[in-house]
Amino acid sequence: MSLLALALLVLAQEAGNAPLDASALTISPPATVTELDLGKLKGVPSRLAWSLDGKELYLQTREGDDPERASTRHYVIALGEKTLKPVGDEPQWASQYWTWKSGQSAPGGSTPLKIEVRREQRLQSSTSTPMGGDLARGVPAGGTGGVSVGEISAAGQQMQKVIVTSLWLKGESLGEWVNAAVLPGETFGWAPRGFDAIAFIDRSGRVMVMDGEGRKQPLNQTTKALFPAWNQDGARLAFLERTGRKKLLLKTVDVARH
User: Fold this and answer.
1) pLDDT tens digits, the chain, 258 residues: what are they?
2) 3-state secondary structure 22-73
3) Are the beta carbons of 45 and 70 closer than 8 angstroms?
4) Domain range summary for the chain, segments of one domain joined by +
5) Contact 255, 27 (CB under 8 A)
6) Cα separations in angstroms, 250 against 41, 77, 93, 223, 228
7) Nearest to 248 by CA among 44, 30, 10
8) Sheet-wide strand order for 172-178
9) What contacts 258, CB < 8 A, 6 or more positions away?
10) Element spanning 47, H or E
């Protein structure tokens, strides 16, 4: 292929991937692909990626809190068959996808969209996790070994310092981690090159689509979502939805532009 033909092809692709208006998108109701049992898969999700042809998704799970020492497992999900099978390693296409999906900046956008990382120290009440005594064991007040008003008051006054890391884009919070390393891509996913858009999880656990101008559209039938991921042409979104302590649903929606 000549350089001129290649340049024309790139221009045609980018013309087709013109920046979208999130508020004008037509988004289908979520469709369930399959249920995931983390008790069988082992670990927790750490990556979700699309294949180039859009026929498969890659799921990575991780055991261990330290990303550098964690044990990872790899699975490929065939969308047509709704089957999940283990594979020996992460496919190359999944690694390439994850690089742009979870980056700090939009991939090749016409607008310089870049996620802001904030890090701060806070004082946090420990009332929700009381230390010692009957209060920590959940013995009801007035029962045997009941909790006194003084114990409740003391628990409420206990404070601890925590390090909070948060991600922000155009005034929207894309996620917050307390005393933990940020997992890029867990709460957001960039749209493909040239679209100038992002999907992220809002504070209520709902998937939200936002464009480069800050216009938004929620996926109202989503809750407790994780790992939003656009396919390679921006026509579908996949995400995980937590339904129990160790149960997740893999879901997709169709995204149409006008």
Assistant:
1) 444 333 333 433 444 456 789 999 999 999 999 999 999 998 999 999 999 999 999 999 999 776 667 799 999 999 999 899 999 999 999 999 999 999 999 998 666 899 999 999 988 775 443 333 333 333 333 344 455 555 555 555 578 899 999 999 999 999 999 999 899 999 999 999 989 999 999 999 999 999 999 999 999 899 999 999 999 999 999 999 999 999 999 999 999 987
2) HHHCEECCCEEEEEEEHHHHCCEEEEEEECCCCCEEEEEEEECCCCCCCEEE
3) no
4) 27-109+184-258
5) yes
6) 14, 10, 20, 12, 10
7) 44
8) 116-125, 159-169, 172-178
9) 24, 25, 26
10) strand 44-50
- What six digits make up the tokens of 121? 């120290």
User: Does an H or E element contain 92, and which?
Assistant: helix 92-101
**139 is written with which tokens?**
């013995």
In angstroms, how far is the first alpha carbon of the chain from the final one? 32
For residue 3, the surrounding DSSP H or E stretch is helix 3-16
Give the C-alpha separation, 177 to 165, whole Å: 5
CA distance 136 to 138: 6
Q: Is the dihedral of CA 111, 227, 102, 66 positive or negative?
A: positive
DSSP letter at 107 equals: T
